[in-house]
Structures are given as C-alpha cells and as structure tokens.
Amino acid sequence: MNRLQQLFTDKKDICSVYYTAGYPNLGDTVPILQALEDGGADLVELGMPFSDPLADGPTIQASSEQALANGMSLNKLFEQIKDMRQTINMPIVLMGYFNPVFKFGVEAFIAKCKEVGVDGLIMPDLPFDEYRDKYQKLFDEAGIANIFLITPQTSNERIKLIDSNSNGFIYVVSSASVTGAKKDVEQTQIDYFNRVNGLELQSPRLIGFGISNRSTFETACQHASGAIIGSAFVKLLGEHGANANQIKEFIKSIKFGV
Questions:
Q1: Which pTM value belongs to this model?
Q2: What letter does residue 49 receive in the DSSP assignment?
Q3: Hey, what domains does the chain have and what are their CATH numbers?
Q4: Known catalytic membership, residue 10
C-alpha cells in the first residue's frame, strides 16, 4: 500500500495544502514543506509554476509568476526535493500543467518523480484519453497516481469512467470557476457533492477551489474525505513568507478552528 492509499485508509477530514514551488523565494520550497509536515498537514500538492495557467485564479497566478522570476524550473524543483524523504513522511503530489512535463520528457519526468518520492500528479490539461492511451502504463509501472479532476459539469457517466481509472483520489472541483478563497459553500455546490456521493464511487475524494477557512473546510469534509486549501495558504506565504510558526498556526486554524 502506497502513501496515498495509506492516508485515505487511516484518516478522515484530510487537510491537503497547495502552494507554489519557489514562492515567495526560490529557496522556500522545502522549508515550507517541512513546516506543513510539522504543523499537521496530511497531504501537500506542490505546484509546478507555469506561465500560461488555465484554472488558477489571481493569487496562484501571481505566485507562479514570482516563482518563475525567481528561477524555478522542473530541474530546480527535483534538485530541491531530492532528499525530502529523509524528513517528510506525508504524501506529496506535484500539480501543474502538461506543457513543461512534455518538454522535460514524460518518461524522464515520471522516473524523477519515483526517484525523489513523489506519490502522484495532478495535470488538469492532460486529456483523459491521451493519458490512458499513451501514459498510463508509465504511471502504473512507477507507482505514481494520476489524479483526475471533476466539476459540476462532469456527467455521471464520465465520473464513473474516471473513478474506474483512478488509483489515488478524485479532485472534486467545487464550482465552475478558477481557484480562489471563498467564505461560504453554496447550496448548489452541496447538491453537486451529494450527486457525486450518490454514485457510490470506489475512489476517495477531496474537494478543492474556494476552501479557505475552518467553516468551508468542515463543510467539505461532510461531503468528502477532506479538502484542499490553496489560494488562502499562498496568500499567507505572500504576507509572511516561509515562517514556520505562521504556517503551523494556519494549519491549526483550518483543522481545529484555533
């Protein structure tokens, strides 16, 4: 059983945190990761910055621009995290867009992920059929989970197809929008979560987009295995940098409301 599978077997109300590698400073990637582990985060989605994002709101777009300006690249990222498994035990997922991965070389990229201890990938713009036809064997042989996204517009048939081809978790995008913190979860979103739950899927789900505080985190956890906090945490980093105490307090506020 890999780290992702173990996480969803052992825990509920999973707190997954997204941030952009190389932000706010190039050397902050691993210190932030360590502070998140020490602070009680259950899973980290480490963003691979890209110049032409499709689903990212202003906060994460700005963090990617800054990270790229700082000199972040895939080679630099792998160099930074090559020894992370000496101190980091929680699952780590890389999240980003397919263009840089394609340029790096998909086979070489998957091999590096396995080498440094990455557990999964989220690439929203990698078409499902292309993944299944061209790359699924690479992922499976390396033991790397490919995590798919679903939205309120995804049909039940498509969700079931994604479920049957998932080996990590399903990323439930809470609304038809870009990333960004929101104060509340709307009834239409809850109806959508209930529709997904009614399909009795085999894969665990995490809800993302708009999860920013204890209230939205709690609501998401009532309808899934946990939730993903992105923009709100990236905003914190923009204000306080890689301050371990601030990061730990943020995680406590999300998970426990303190």
A1: 0.93
A2: -
A3: 3-256 (3.20.20.70)
A4: no
